[in-house]
């Protein structure tokens, strides 16, 4: 074997090794990029799901608060529209609130007492909607506004 043949072999094996290493690095790069894309997509999907749930929780909480407030303020001389709205809200709540919480809410409006009132219902709904994020808020810590509150 002469020097030219040895140079051809060395050059050929160098080119083959370089091509092989380029191919391996391209495959590795593609695999890493796809893994990152998949991880980001999964995180984005979870974020969107959480955000949608938070919006739904807020809407449901608003519905409960609106109904309790409206139902407690209904009087004999309230308009037909107010009664219609109260019924609509009540029926919407009956669709998704668990039976025990819905019944508790109805009793709290009809016959409020120390153990079952609007604020205990708010706490029950809060625990239902927020689960472990509900914390330990009590009915005594919720602001409640009415004429004469705070006067001794």
Automatic annotation (TrEMBL):
UniProt keyword Membrane, yes or no: yes
Source domain of life: Bacteria
Positions of transmembrane segments: 6-28
UniProt keyword terms in alphabetical order: Membrane, Transmembrane, Transmembrane helix
Name this polypeptide is given: Uncharacterized protein
